[in-house]
Amino acid sequence: MEENDQGAQRPDFIPEVGEEAVDAAPCSPCTVLTEQEQAELHSELQKVEDEIQTLSQVLAAKEKQVAEIKRKLGITPLNELKQNLSKGWHDVTTSTAYKKTSETLSQVGQKATTAFSSVGTAITRKLEDVRLQSFSNSFGNTPSFKSFEEKVETLKTKMSPKPSTSDIEEVSDSTPDGEPMIKQPDDTFSPDQQPH
Q1: What is the pLDDT of residues 118-154, one digit of tens each?
Q2: 76 backbone dihedrals φ, ψ, rounded to 5°
Q3: Cβ(25)–Cβ(15) under 8 Å?
Q4: How far apart are CA 193 and CA 196, in angstroms?
C-alpha cells in the first residue's frame, strides 16, 4: 500500500509540516478563499518566515557568543565532553539502584574470593603432596642414589664378619629346603641293583 493511500484512509493522518509539505499539499476544493483572505494569509506567512529567519540569526549569534566565552574560559569541546561524562557518572553512582547493585556485587565478590582462596589452598596442598611423592620416587631411582646404595652395601659387606669355610660348605651343600645340592649320577647303582 502506498503512503498516499494510507493518508487517505486515516482521517487523523497529518502530513509532514515544512515547506515541501505546504507545496505538496493539494488545495481543498471546498475551501474557497477570497482575495482579501489570501492577501492576509500571504502577509502572515511572510511575517512567520521573517521571524524564523530572525530567530535563526539570533540563535547563530548566541551560539557564536557561547563559543567565544568558552574559548576565553579554556573550555574545549574535549573538556566539555569530560565534564558531561563526569557529571553523568556522578549521577549514576549516586543513584539508589547503583548503590544496591554495587553492594550486592561487593558481597558476591567477597564470597567468590573466599571460595577461590579455599580451592587454591586445597590445590596447593595436593600439588605439594604430589610433588613430594614424585620427588621421593624419582630420588630413589636416580643413578646417584643407586650408587650410594651400592656403596652402603659394599661397606656393609666389608664390615660384617666373614663366615668360616665350614659354614660355606654347609651352606653350599644344601638348598634352602635342606636337600643336598650334590646329586649322585644316574649311572650309579644302588647295592641291591646290579648291572647286567
Answers
A1: 888 888 888 877 777 766 666 555 666 667 777 777 7
A2: -95, 165
A3: yes
A4: 9
Lowest mean pLDDT among 63-67, 109-113, 159-163: 159-163
C-alpha cell read off for 190: 644302588
DSSP result, 38-57:
HHHHHHHHHHHHHHHHHHHH
Q: Whole-angstrom Cα distance, residue 173 to residue 195? A: 29
- Say how far apart CA 46 and CA 53 lie, in whole Å: 11
CA distances from 95 to 69, 104, 106, 132, 175 (A): 33, 15, 17, 55, 96
Quickly list DSSP for the chain: --HHHHHHH-TT--PPPSHHHHHHSPPPTT----HHHHHHHHHHHHHHHHHHHHHHHHHHHHHHHHHHHHHHHT--HHHHHHHHHHHHHHHHHTSHHHHHHHHHHHHHHHHHHHHHHHHHHHHHHHHHHHHHHHHHHHHHTSHHHHHHHHHHHHHHHHHSPPPPHHHHHHHHHB-TTS-BS----TT---TT----
User: What is the distance between the alpha carbons of residues 170 and 140, in angstroms, rounded to a whole number?
Assistant: 37
What cell does 55 get?
Answer: 530567530
Calpha distance 24→45 (Å, rounded): 16
